[in-house]
Amino acid sequence: MPSFQRAAKGALADTQQRRNLAHATATIRAKRAAVVGEVADWEALRVAGADAKDEALHHLPDYLEQLEANLTARGATVHWARDAAEANQVVIDVARAQGADEVVKVKSMATQEIELNEALEEAGIAAWETDLAELIVQLGQDRPSHILVPAIHRNRAEIREIFRREMGRAGRAAPEDLTDEPARLAEAARLHLREKFLRAKVAVSGANFAVADTGTLVVVESEGNGRMCLTLPQTLVSIVGVEKVLPTFADLGTMMQLLPRSSTGERMNPYTSTWTGVTPGDGPQEVHVVLLDNGRSRVLADEVGREALRCIRCSACLNVCPVYERAGGHAYGSVYPGPIGAVLNPLLRGVSSDVDKSLPYASSLCGACFEACPVRIDIPSLLVHLRTQVVDEASGRSAEAAGMRAASWVFGDHRRLEAAQRAASLGGRLLGGRTIRSVPGLGAWTQARDVPTPPTETFRQWWARSHRNDGHTGEDA
Amino acid sequence: MSAREAILARLREATADVTTPVGARGEVPTISAAPASAAGTLDLFVDNVADYRATVVRCAPDRVGAEVAAALARGRAHAVLVPDGLEATWVEPSQAAGMWLRRDAGEDGSPLSPGALDEIDAVVTAARVGIATTGTIVLDHTEDQGRRALTLVPDQHVCVIRADQVVHDVPEAVALLDPARPLTWISGPSATSDIELDRVEGVHGPRVLDVVVVG
Ligand code: SF4
User: Fold this and answer.
1) Neighbouring C-alpha atoms within 13 Å toward the C-beta of A22
2) With left for phi above 0 and alpha for psi between -120 and 50, is residue A294 left, alpha or beta?
């Protein structure tokens, strides 16, 4: 895996991706701001959300045992998995016990993290992604680039091509006369997946929340593919990171206000399903829950870093991040992109690889992510904390040396410098007249001092705009 | 050591620094918008449900059957699924209009298979709770709503909710719900914004949602 900076270099050259991203993040930002503005006491909600997660995290063993007891009492089978291999094996064993050679899947970050689809394929079991964006990513043999809109880097024409080329190989082919209208593309996905939903014996899901005092799991979604997977097959396996625990059912009153408004910018997402073990005569009659560690206990042991485990994967921090908007999701080298990825990946995996070493520097420390975060994760402070770890690890190297490497990367190419300046001036627009702490890409170098808020237009942007007619157009106009 | 013991031991070690006892935060705080009036709450509910491009009508109790029949006619439904516990008068006018009312039972009396559900055009149900601030309807799948698959596979869902079931904000709804039941929170028809963020209604769930508010 290349470092963030190397991967981002390629992404910066991809104009299409940057346009898609800029449009998408701006749209979601505006929607989010409008629905958050409707809530009288948003700050009190954020505090309550952070407190609920902290209560669970600080006493995680107790709440997990409570969750397990309640699930078992309601007829579910609870499994524990130290790592990806153990979790994947549970799913493989359950599918084999049912004689299934395929499973349908609800979009789940945890299953991407453990590379479940690849493990199932090796075991001869097909895993069908059913979320529209995940379907696009899977059929396109691609990787997700955003938590909420994983195919955000693809435009409608590309999606049409992928559907026409690939759907027939995986099942029902796309209609001959498929156009690139979103409604037609969604219809093609509906038809393609319906036969899979109707015949599936085993489904795999994640969970947004797992409620300890009742044993209730919660899946939040939009399309109804989640409901299909959670309802029609007779066997359901849910992979749940141990940090997904909420202490009480009443905490859903807080979380179900915070999550939809922060993620899709809606008052409420179209569908939320909750289930508590097995309900006789309704839905899966065999319910498995896999409680997954895979590095989370390591994050929890970091007294500063542990607040990253509050994350409810809403993606608000991605949508406000000037660095994410330029670099795209793939550069983070993980299923967790954006500001939260820049802290969560090195916390989960340690800072020995190139990419994990570089991620704490993939930020301008502008603070927009912290302000957007519904559970008040102080991502900028965590990044600074991790930079210290990176520096400590690279013995003999000072923070300044690490910072200068980042600086030379930025200054080494005029396009990167422009991107950094534009990102900084975007920061200037977002933050109004406030001071920001650094220029993107130069984090460690400038973190010790404040730099003035950049102008909303850099000199290079002004030059590109005012000299457009002499053939020197701005790349990003 | 089993994976369970190993993980719990790691987590205990990781939280060894924590000195507060479990539950020290006290009562779960309820942060909830306050309703101006009962009428205001109901108006807000109707506006927010309609904002999701569901069709909402309000009617007196003796008009429910007529409004349900009108909604099914708009959706051109023929085969209509009726949960066992549904108020019979709610679907009598539909039957009189020639629609084919189906129970959740095949010829041998067992529940309809997913394939059989796929042949059905519409389903009519009651609801458990409505939430005004978000335009959400919550089903708890008791007898007047039927098991979860019934409101999922058919293409049209006509949902009848009484005015006194509508609460103002999310925490009030959560307090009324029974966690032991499977619950489905519905806010408009199924939708996706995955293609260039253009919202498309109707992906896998019902493409048409009609809400009849009684009283
Ligand atoms: S860190 Fe906060 S803003 Fe970012 S995805 Fe997680 S919960 Fe959302």
Assistant:
1) 14
2) left
Q: How many CB atoms lie within 10 A of CB B69?
A: 23
DSSP H helix total and E strand total for chain B: 6, 12
The protein residue whose alpha carbon is closest to atom 2 in ligand 1 is: A373
3-state secondary structure of A447: coil
Residue A176 Cα to ligand 1 midpoint, Å, equals 41
Interface test with A, best of B147, B203, B208, B209 (most A CBs within 10 A): B203
- The amino acid that residue B115 corresponds to is G
CB contact under 8 A, B147 and A282: yes
* CB-CB under 8 Å, B188 with A270: yes
Query: Is B100 within 8 Å of B123 (Cβ atoms)?
Result: no
The region of weakest confidence among A279-288, A312-321, A427-436, B168-177 is A427-436
Q: How far is CA A377 from the centre of its chain?
A: 15
Q: How far is A55 from A251, CA to CA, in rounded Å?
A: 11
Whether A125 and A114 have beta carbons less than 8 Å apart is answered as no
Is the Cβ pair A300, B15 closer than 8 Å? yes
State the Cα–Cα distance between residues B42 and B51, nearest whole angstrom. Answer: 14
Substitution target in A271, A289, A293, A303 with the highest count of B β-carbons within 10 Å is A271
Question: Which percentage of chain A shows pLDDT scores above 70?
Answer: 82
Beta strands in A258-314 (DSSP E): 271-276, 286-292
pLDDT > 70? residue A403: no
Instruction: Assess contact for B18 and A59: CB atoms under 8 A.
Output: yes
Q: What is the pLDDT of residue A470?
A: 38
Neighbours of B106 (CB within 10 A): 12
SS3 state of residue A210: strand
In this predicted complex, what is the ipTM? 0.96
Which 3 state secondary structure label does DSSP give B201? Answer: strand
How many Cβ atoms from other residues are within 10 Å of residue A124's Cβ? Answer: 11
**Which residue has 């170098």 as its token pair?**
A445
Query: What pLDDT, in 10s, does the model give residues A172-183?
Result: 999 989 999 988
